[in-house]
Specification:
heterodimer, A: 222 residues, mainly alpha, elongated, B: Rossmann fold, three-stranded antiparallel β-sheet, 6 helices
Chain lengths: 222, 204
C-alpha cells in the first residue's frame, strides 16, 4: 500500500514541478470556452442552452491533451520497467497513475468549470450540479484514458490515435454528464437519475479500466 | 538460494536468439553474459526480470521468497536509468527506495556508495551521463533484493565509478546475492562465470 501511495505522490510532485501538462489542459479549457461565446454571439438564451454541453465537451478535450503523457514519460526514461518489477501489480500501477492524473488534471478542470460557466450564462442553480457531475465523471475520464494511453504508448505522435480510440469510451460519460447538468437547470428533481448513472459509469471504469490498461502495458513491455 | 533456468528459448520477430538455454547460479555467484551485439543479452536479462515471456522454458528460484515472483526478487537496471530529470538526486533515490520497499536510511548509503552524496540536492537534469548512470545503479542498494540484473552497467562510467560498481557487486556477492550482468567490459568481480550467447545459434 505504501508503494501505491508513493507512486501517486511522485506523480503529483512531477505534475507540480513540470507543470506543463496541467497548465496546457487548463489553458486549453480556458481558451476554448472563452472563444466560443465570441464566435456564437451574445445571445444569452442560446448560450444558456448550450453551456452544459460546451463545458463538458471542452473538459473532455482538455483532459485528452494530458492523457497521452500518462505512461509515456515513464516509458521514455525506463521507470516503467522498474515499476513493472516492483511490488505493485501493473493493475495497481495503472490505478495509481489514473488517480494521480485525476488529482492533477480532473480536479483543477472541475474547479475551473464554474468560472467558465459565468461566461456561458449558466443558470445559478446549475453550478452545484455542474461541479458534482464533473467530480463524479472525471474519474471515469482518467481511468478510461489510462487504457488509451497504455495502448498508444509506443505509437509516435499517438495523440490522434488516442483521441479516436477514446471517443466511443467517453461518449457515455459525456451524455450523462451533460444530461445531469441540463436536467438540473430545468428541474432539479431530474438531476438524480443521470447523476447516478454517471457515478455508476465512473465506478465501473475504476474497476475495469486498470485491468485493461495493465494488459496493454504488459504487451507494450514485450 | 539458486536461480535455475531450463530450456529457455526466445524468438524475437522470426529470429531465434537462443534455444534450449540452461544455467544455474547459486548464492554468491556472478554470471557474465557475453556475446556480440544482437546476440540476445538484453533479451535474456529482460526474460529473467519477467518483462518478456520466453517462447519456451522456465525460470525459477529455489530457496527464495515463495510469495514473490522471480521478477519481484530482481533489481533490473536496463539501458535506461529510470531517473526523473525534474526531481533532485535525493528525491529520485527516495522515491525508488520507498516504492521498492527499502529502508529510508539506505538512501544515504546508496548515494555515498556511488559517489553521489555531494550532488544530493541537484536536479537530475544537470547530471552528466555517467552521474545519471551511477544514480540508476544506486537503485540496487536502495532495497534488499537477492538478484541483480545489470544490462551493460559500465556504459559511460569512468574508472572510479567502475570501481564503485565492482565494490558494490562484490559486497552483494559476499552477502550471498546473485549478479547477472550483460557486459562488454569486465565487471571487476572475482570468479565470475561466463555465458557466451550467439555462438550456438550462429552454428545452427
Amino acid at each position: 500500500m505504501s508503494a501505491f501511495r508513493e507512486l501517486v505522490r511522485r506523480d503529483l510532485l512531477l505534475a507540480w514541478k513540470e507543470g506543463g501538462t496541467v497548465g496546457v489542459a487548463l489553458g486549453f479549457y480556458l481558451v476554448v470556452v472563452t472563444l466560443l461565446p465570441l464566435g456564437i454571439g451574445p445571445d444569452l438564451n442560446l448560450l444558456m442552452r448550450i453551456a452544459p454541453g460546451v463545458l463538458w465537451v471542452s473538459l473532455l478535450l482538455a483532459a485528452l491533451l494530458s492523457l497521452g503523457r500518462m505512461f509515456e514519460t515513464d516509458a521514455e526514461d525506463g521507470s516503467l520497467e522498474v515499476l513493472a518489477t516492483g511490488p505493485l501489480p501493473l493493475e495497481a500501477v495503472a490505478t495509481a497513475k489514473s488517480l494521480a492524473h485525476w488529482l492533477a488534471t480532473g480536479v483543477p478542470l472541475t474547479l475551473l468549470a464554474p468560472l467558465l460557466g459565468l461566461m456561458l450564462n449558466l443558470q445559478p442553480e446549475a453550478y452545484g450540479p455542474l461541479m458534482l457531475s464533473m467530480l463524479a465523471g472525471t474519474p471515469a475520464v482518467s481511468s478510461l484514458g489510462a487504457v488509451g494511453a497504455a495502448l498508444t504508448l509506443r505509437t509516435r505522435r499517438g495523440g490522434l490515435l488516442l483521441a479516436i480510440l477514446m471517443l466511443p469510451l467517453f461518449v457515455p460519460t459525456l451524455i450523462f454528464g451533460i444530461e445531469s447538468v441540463r436536467a438540473a437547470s430545468l428541474d432539479s428533481a431530474a438531476f438524480l437519475p443521470s447523476f447516478l448513472i454517471l457515478c455508476a459509469i465512473s465506478l465501473a471504469s475504476l474497476v475495469l479500466a486498470p485491468l485493461a490498461a495493465a494488459a496493454a502495458l504488459r504487451f507494450q513491455l514485450q | 538460494m539458486k536461480l535455475i533456468a531450463e530450456g529457455l528459448t526466445s524468438i524475437r520477430g522470426d529470429r531465434t536468439l537462443f534455444a534450449g538455454l540452461a544455467f544455474t547460479i547459486g548464492g554468491g555467484e556472478a554470471l557474465l553474459l557475453l556475446g556480440p551485439n544482437g546476440s540476445g543479452k538484453t533479451t535474456l536479462i529482460r526474460t529473467v526480470a519477467g518483462l518478456l515471456a520466453p517462447a519456451a522454458g522456465t525460470i525459477r528460484i529455489e530457496g527464495g521468497d515463495a510469495e514473490r515472483s522471480v521478477g519481484e526478487q530482481c533489481h533490473y537496471v536496463g539501458h535506461l536509468n529510470a531517473v526523473k530529470s525534474s526531481l533532485t538526486v535525493e528525491e529520485n533515490a527516495k522515491f525508488w527506495c520507498r516504492f521498492l520497499g527499502g529502508r529510508e536510511d539506505r538512501v544515504e548509503e546508496a548515494l555515498a556508495a556511488f559517489g553521489l552524496a555531494a550532488l544530493r540536492d541537484i536536479p537530475s537534469a544537470y547530471l552528466s551521463a555517467g552521474q545519471k548512470r551511477r544514480l540508476g545503479l544506486a537503485r540496487v542498494l536502495l532495497a534488499e533484493r537477492p538478484i541483480w540484473l545489470l544490462d551493460e552497467p559500465t556504459v559511460s562510467l569512468d574508472s572510479a565509478a567502475q570501481d564503485m560498481l565492482a565494490a558494490a557487486a562484490t559486497a552483494h556477492l559476499a552477502a550471498g546475492g546473485l549478479v547477472i550482468a550483460a557486459t562488454h567490459a569486465p565487471l571487476g568481480v572475482a570468479g565470475a562465470r561466463e555465458l557466451h550467447l550467439g555462438r550456438a545459434v550462429e552454428a545452427a
